[in-house]
């Protein structure tokens, strides 16, 4: 079972009733919850808080030791008009913020009334906030989600959840889920890198082939046929007469050789 502590800021005047005479005044600093606090310098000034729960704490600011002779603050705390507990701190050189002033023992699961009383005139008593453990059946509108931080912004009732404990933890499943998710991301990244490398090599190979093709490859060629024309047409037989002055008289017959042509080629 989880335990939830509900914080009630000093500025929640619907939950904390401050006495009018002697009275209180509002103040605050950056070191105080919600930057607010209620203070009084009057003996007999009271703040009353009614709650349904089993535990209660009171936090306040302890002022630094005064240089003007102001008395140290002394306050009392009582539950259900029972015996009072006294808080009488010894102030130091610096202010102490969000200091525990009172803490109850375990209470019966019922409605309780806490009364805070400043007992020293002219002392500086500062109330910052009250924390209590609510009953399970109490209206959950008085508290924020269990994951809210101590410095959560005030709601309409100026309450916030300040602590949660549980016997079960979701940390191991979260760690396992994160590990599996990281491994899956690595696998996807590896596949992507491999694909890009393969694609780069393929594109490079295509580019090389295209370059070689653009340079051109040798092509076979043929020599034109060498054609030898036949001699001019002659009659089948010619009679040659030698001049008489040559001293040779003869008649011969000449026959035309057959025509031919040669073809030379490279294969």
What secondary-structure arrangement, pairings included, does this model have?
Layout: E1 3-9, E2 16-18, E3 25-27, E4 37-40, E5 46-62, E6 75-79, E7 85-87, E8 96-103, E9 110-118, E10 125-134, E11 159-165, H1 171-215, E12 237-241, E13 251-255
Antiparallel strand pairs: 1-10, 1-11, 2-5, 3-4, 4-10, 5-8, 5-9, 5-10, 6-7, 6-9, 12-13
Entry keywords:
267 residues, alpha+beta, two-stranded antiparallel sheet, 1 helix, 17% helix
Shape call: elongated
State the distance separating the first and last CA atoms: 100 Å
Which value, in Å, is the CA radius of gyration? 57 Å
Q: Can you give the helix content as a percent range?
A: 10-25%
Secondary structural class: alpha+beta
SSE order in H/E notation?
EEEEEEEEEEEHEE
Sequence stretches where pLDDT stays below 50 over 5 or more residues: 139-159, 163-171, 234-239, 246-252, 262-267
Description of the molecule:
The chain is α+β, with helices and mostly antiparallel strands. About 15% of the residues lie in helices and about 30% in strands. It has one helix and 13 strands; from the N terminus they run βββββββββββαββ. The strands form two sheets. Strands 1, 2, 3, 4, 5, 6, 7, 8, 9, 10 and 11 form an eleven-stranded antiparallel beta sheet that branches.
């Amino acid at each position: 079972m989880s335990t939830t502590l509900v914080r009630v800021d000093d500025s929640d005047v619907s939950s904390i009733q401050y006495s009018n005479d002697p009275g209180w005044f509002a103040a605050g600093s950056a070191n105080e919850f919600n930057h607010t606090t209620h203070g009084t310098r009057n003996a007999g000034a009271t703040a009353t808080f009614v709650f349904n729960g089993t535990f209660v704490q009171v936090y306040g600011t302890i002022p630094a030791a005064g240089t003007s002779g102001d008395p140290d603050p002394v306050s009392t705390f009582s539950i259900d008009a029972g015996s009072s507990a006294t808080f009488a701190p010894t102030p130091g050189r610096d202010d102490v913020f969000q200091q525990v002033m009172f803490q109850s023992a375990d209470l019966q699961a019922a409605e309780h009334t806490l009364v805070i009383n400043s007992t020293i005139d002219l002392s500086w008593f500062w109330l910052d906030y009250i924390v209590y453990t609510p009953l399970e059946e109490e209206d959950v509108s008085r508290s924020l989600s269990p994951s809210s931080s101590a410095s959560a912004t005030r709601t309409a009732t100026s309450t916030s959840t300040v602590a949660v404990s549980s016997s079960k933890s979701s940390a191991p499943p979260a760690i396992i889920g994160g590990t599996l998710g990281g491994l899956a991301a690595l696998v996807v990244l590896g596949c992507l890198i491999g694909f890009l490398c393969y694609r780069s090599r393929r594109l490079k190979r295509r580019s090389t082939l295209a370059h070689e093709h653009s340079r051109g490859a040798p092509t076979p060629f043929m020599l034109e046929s060498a054609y030898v024309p036949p001699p001019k047409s002659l009659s089948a037989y010619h009679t040659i007469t030698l001049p008489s002055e040559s001293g040779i008289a003869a008649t011969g017959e000449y026959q035309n050789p057959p025509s031919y042509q040669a073809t030379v080629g490279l294969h």
